[in-house]
Amino acid sequence: VLPYCFIPHSTHLCQPLDVLIFSMMQREYSKLVFEQTRLNIRINKTLFSSLLEKVRDSILTPSTIVKSFETCGLRPI
């Protein structure tokens, strides 16, 4: 691992998880929650974890992870 320096006050622009992954997960989870509440299904702990697992499995793919780094201008090796 080679350490790199970030320009001060700009690290929020260079964090791959924040830039792409978390925003995609939030959008997908919101869709699932909306569907559940539309059907009058309460979201308990068990349902929460199963919804989160669905979102994680659909979003966290190798290609999405690489794309998130590339979006920030970082090239994973």
Would you give an account of this structure?
It comes from Athelia psychrophila. This is DDE-1 domain-containing protein. The structure is a single chain. This protein is mostly helical and 77 residues long. The chain has a domain at 31-77. It has three helices and no strands. It starts with 15 loop residues before the first helix and ends in a 6-residue tail after the last helix.
Overall pLDDT score: 85
Question: Approximately how much helix is present in the residues?
Answer: 55-70%
Find the structural class using helix and strand composition. Answer: mainly alpha
Please work out how many helical segments DSSP would assign: 3
Oligomer designation:
single chain
Helix and strand run:
HHH
* Alpha carbon gyration radius: 16 Å
Number of strands: 0
The main sheet comes to: none
Distance from first to last alpha carbon: 10 Å
Uncertain ranges: none
General shape: elongated
Relative strand content: under 5%
Features:
DDE-1 domain-containing protein, 3 helices, 77 residues, mainly alpha
Topology:
Blueprint: H1 16-38, H2 45-59, H3 62-71
Helix pairs in contact: 1-2, 1-3
What would you say about this model in short?
The protein is mostly helical and about 80 residues long.
